[in-house]
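Might I ask for a little of your time on a matter of protein folding? The record follows directly beneath this note:
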Amino acid sequence: AGASRAGDLPDLRHVFWGGDELRPALAAEIAALAPGAEQVNFYGATETPQAAGYFRLDGDPTWRSAPIGFGSDGFQLLIVDKDRRPVGVGEVGEIAVRSNYLSLGYVEAGRVSAPQDRGLDPAGQANIYYTGDRGFRLPDGAVVFTGRADDQLKIRGHRVDLSEVTSALLACPGVRAGVALAVGEGAGLRIEAFAVPERGPAVGEAELRTLLAARLPGYMVPQRVRITPSLPLL
């Protein structure tokens, strides 16, 4: 957001990303400001150190989102099916982190209670954490994050991945940031989108919905698109 005021950053050597899905366009903005900086995408969860996985960005513009890459020292990134069995290269499944350095548990009433959500490795050690994130493995072993398991929902009998709707929204001209969310419950469950416009001529809600209708099946088109000056970051 402050890029227009930042000027060039020729002495910056490293940029470390983490906390959310990294879009290549965002990394490209930083590369324009700091062309000499190496950019690394980190992956982790509250139950794991925040750098359980890493990927050194290579400037490939074809990624929908930057890979989360490989396990750091002492960590392994796994992709498993609903029965928590390993899946093959290119198959989408749940991302799990295997390590002897997971968190000790959860704080309750001022004390750390032992976690009950750890999976067992082949040796019987409780050192696997199932993240609820989804992804797949590339032929070189790197992992690509595709969204949250709880971002999938049924709309009028069709399974929808909200990350796909968000991706289509971010591909619309004039959109700087955005997100698709599930609103309502039961029969009233619907998709709504929130978009932050680029600087310059404002993009309209009706215009965005028309663009999304050209990119997505009818059941995936948000019922409403709301224009907002910013998105909450937490």
Q: What stands out?
A: Residues 175 and 197 are 5 Å apart (CA to CA). The longest strand covers residues 126-137. The helical segments are 3-6, 24-33, 162-170, 205-215.
